Amino acid sequence: MQVHSSNDVSSPDDDKPAPPVLHQALAGLGWGLLTCLLCFAILFLTKWLLPPEYWGAHTGLAKFKREMSLPLLVFWVVIYSPILETFLGQLLPLEILKRLGAGRQLSIFLGAILWGIVHFISGGLLHAIVALGSGAMFSFVYLRYREPGVAAAYTTTAFARACNNIAILVAVFYGLDA
Description:
Layout: H1 21-49, H2 61-67, H3 70-99, H4 104-123, H5 125-144, H6 150-173
Helix pairs in contact: 1-5, 1-6, 3-4, 3-5, 3-6, 4-5, 5-6
């Protein structure tokens, strides 16, 4: 058994080194943009299939754009939200499921369902359906990068969330209302 320092966040039985930050940032960028495309595809398909009376409250970024100053909105979307949402939406539930022995597919499914429920409560059915897609993607990303340690999974997923949020924010500023 190898001795680890107190600031090492990897578990003692992990043999692989954590990926460098640049690799995590680039992976987060790719996964974030892919998640954004998936969410817009789900959004457009759902709006096409579901009558407007079932969509629910309008709580997308366009609402926050109207209610916040630009610097506060950027801080919220790029820094605060990815850190908090990754902790509450992936790290906490997926680590609990891992300790309970849940498999990868079940963890992704339950992570998506949890994320969808939270967004249903705050925004209605349309928001929840789109959140199912992003919840599944972010759960997948977290588990994909979990092997080297919690820190690698958390930072890559938080980068992915930040990139996804930036892409959605840019789309909203150009008139594509999410």
